[in-house]
Amino acid sequence: MSDPRAIYLKDYQVPTYQIEQTELRFDLSSEATRVRARLCVQRDDTTSVSEPLVLDGEALTLISVAIDGRPLDAAEYDADEHSLTLHAVPDRFWLETEVEIAPASNTALEGLYQSNGMFCTQCEPEGFRRITFYPDRPDVMSRFTTTVIGDRTTLPVLLSNGNPIDQCVIDDARHYVTWEDPHPKPAYLFALVAGNLEKREDHFTTASGRDVLLQLWVETQNLNKTEFAMNALKRSMRWDEERFGREYDLDRFMIVAVDDFNMGAMENKGLNIFNSSAVLANPETTVDMMFQRIEGIVAHEYFHNWSGNRVTCRDWFQLALKEGFTVFRDQLFSSDVNSAPVKRIEDVALLRTAQFAEDSGPTAHPVRPDHFIEITNFYTLTVYEKGAEVVRMLRNLLGWEQFRQGSDLYFDRFDGQAVRVEDFIDCMAEVSGQDLTRFMLWYAQAGTPEVTATSAYDADARCLTLSLSQRTPPTPGQTEKEPLQIPVAMGLVGADGKDLPLIMNGESLGTSTVLVMTDAEHRFVFENLDAAPVPSLLRGFSAPVKLHHALSDEQLAFLMRHDSDGFNRWDAGQQLALSELERLMAAWHADEPLVVGDRLIDTMRALITEPADDKAVLAEMLRLPSEAFIAEQQAEVHIDAIHHARRAATRALGEALYDEFAALYDRERSDAPYSPHFEQIAQRSLKNVALGYLCATGRPDALALAQAQFDDNANMTDVRAALTQLAHADDTALGEPAVRAFGERWAHDPLVMDQWFATQVSRPQPDALERVRFLMGHEAFSIKNPNRVRALIGTFVNQNLVNFHREDGQGYRLLADVVIELNRLNPDIAARMVLPLTRFRRLDPVRRAAMRGELERIRGESLSRSVFEVVEKALA
Ligand code: ARG
Ligand code: ZN
């Protein structure tokens, strides 16, 4: 492909034609599906009569074009690779086109494609243009009526958005169903599903008393995995009414599970389509973490019905308008129905490893990018997760009451419209009276701001001066940065471990407050303090920044025990562990023995033996910082040092606290029937953390415990935790047979086989890479299925850092081989998979050169726009 051109936000122009009505007719067939579109086209008032009508279209075979029933001959239109152009059209007319497409050979999984024989669609962001010629942009909204014609035996179920209004048998072979969606929508929310599916059905009564039919459609063998998602859906519907005052607006809501899917799920109006891994669950096949992820995704897609569908985006630069807000909403939901501090800990851990890495690398971009080559590359952690943090900061600045008022105003004022980020922020400014001009910079500036805090206590004046400064490092294309508006939630912890009253300028602020930074530097003076307190800053991680607050190990240990903020208690523990790990890394570099200090061991012992109020938090506190998090803290990254330091620490803790961990393991065992309730999840999590430390010692009695847990076969969470310990042990005597048994038992279930792949290729021993190559030839693996690719290749490159970054460059080579193949099959997935290869800046020269070399090799290929954009940025 010759240099694809970038598209800029500043070049936005209003649509010249609107589509009042969209009537589609699909005649389904694997190799030659016919799509007829009747569009009621209306020229915009501001458009000149000479303006041509330009429709988007990709990979379509044009059969015919007609205006108001009159067929056009080829001289009357221009059709090229990407568009259909009609000159001199009436003000208002019916345009009819017919095209042919080939769903079975669509491996990109955008537009209409097939998965296990079933037909399904993915249109966001620009897939609809692979279905028919259309103005494929979110600010063109239309009423859709869709007729789906299919084979009666192989495609008994025919679905689209809205309500079924007509259905009939056509002949011996075929039948059809016509669907009508009363809500005008952009084309990216269109969906069609056809297949041999079965359903779980339920009902929901809305707050105003309307009955909604709920259906979850799956392949027959998956019916026993639908109960959890259905209940999660009902919880989400109730929650959105209670928390945000949002009620569902159609008579039915359908979810379909699909095996081949690029992302997690899609919020098509009334017909959500889900990656089967994001919806199917039962205790025998699914681990606790996945139950929670599924609950969050079901909620996320459902919440989009308002934040995304009723109020949508003007253009794709505004993607975070719907995604940031909706992620914030799903986070709030999950924290309301589960352990709130643990939900926060998990979200921040993801942000501080993966999103911070993105923000400091070559593909860094603002929450609202101002240009792109391929928009599918911008469904990123920055848009989603940092976008959610930005919305959370608004909540922190305004408080919940005003935030909710702003949300109500936004939904009320912009219902049925396609709008911009500014429209959302304006509502928040209006209800609160706050000036949010500077706040808008969060959407425009890339990079993670660094906040440095120092404090000085003056015993004579009995006051503490807290100095806060901020700086955002340069990112590609943005060298100068301005100060941002940053809410810093904080408190001061007294010697007795209790929060002290905060008094500033004689005014009492309670025991926890939000300081607001708007300048590069600030000083805050707290009065009436009898002794120097320990400041607890950025409580609940109130802003997505890197905080530099030089606390001693004593102070960290103190906050870890006493901070009233659960998140900060955990974070203090992580900082404390990090400082110990950094000592071990230094020892590794100096070729000295890796000896773990007593402080870490003693704090861990105290955690285990003292009674815990929240077991879920305790389990998190017992985990050492992940390798990816440690790497993110280093100016120069030495993967081997990180890996060996962390392994040594885990083993030393296991040895030193063997009896305590064994007692903890026993204490948290339970015979209660499995439930995905968070209290049970916390218990299993705690038990399996203990098992991990025990097995890290390599002692036979520890591995025997894992073997017994594996054989016990109580639920997948415990089986998988045990299998991981067995398969990751140096001694393969128990691991090999367990891996084999598990693989045979679950050969029929692809979602379990994904876990089987992931467990094997995350093995830290040096044979992991050969294992990946070997498993790529396994019959359960297919490079065409994104879940398989993520489980096998994604797990290896993202979670087995020491083997991916092998000094001989074989890990990089393997990834590049995969990316080159995927580039031809599925550009979206290829462009995601290549990302770890682009993060070479802070590595040593040997690895840097090897990674660049593989990127150059990829660049030598004929690249899709998606992969081109990422590789160009990395090599720039
Ligand atoms: N809007 C969907 C969600 O976040 C994601 C769809 C992304 N699709 C894609 N091809 N990138 O729920
Ligand atoms: Zn979303």
Automatic annotation (TrEMBL):
Residues 228-440 form the Peptidase M1 membrane alanine aminopeptidase domain. Residues 553-876 form the Peptidase M1 alanyl aminopeptidase C-terminal domain. Its cofactor is Zn(2+). Keywords: Aminopeptidase, Hydrolase, Metal-binding, Metalloprotease, Protease, Zinc. Residues 447-549 form the Peptidase M1 alanyl aminopeptidase Ig-like fold domain. Residues 48-189 form the Aminopeptidase N-like N-terminal domain. Gene3D superfamilies: 2.60.40.1840, 3.30.2010.30, Neutral Protease Domain 2 (1.10.390.10), Peptidase M1, alanyl aminopeptidase, C-terminal domain (1.25.50.10), tricorn interacting facor f3 domain (2.60.40.1730). Pfam families: DUF3458, DUF3458_C, Peptidase_M1, Peptidase_M1_N. It catalyses: Release of an N-terminal amino acid, Xaa-|-Yaa- from a peptide, amide or arylamide. Xaa is preferably Ala, but may be most amino acids including Pro (slow action). When a terminal hydrophobic residue is followed by a prolyl residue, the two may be released as an intact Xaa-Pro dipeptide. One of its GO terms (biological process) is proteolysis. Its EC number is 3.4.11.2. It comes from the Bacteria. SUPFAM superfamilies: Leukotriene A4 hydrolase N-terminal domain, Metalloproteases ('zincins'), catalytic domain. GO terms for molecular function: alanyl aminopeptidase activity; metallopeptidase activity; zinc ion binding. Belongs to the peptidase M1 family. Aminopeptidase N is involved in the degradation of intracellular peptides generated by protein breakdown during normal growth as well as in response to nutrient starvation. This is Aminopeptidase N.
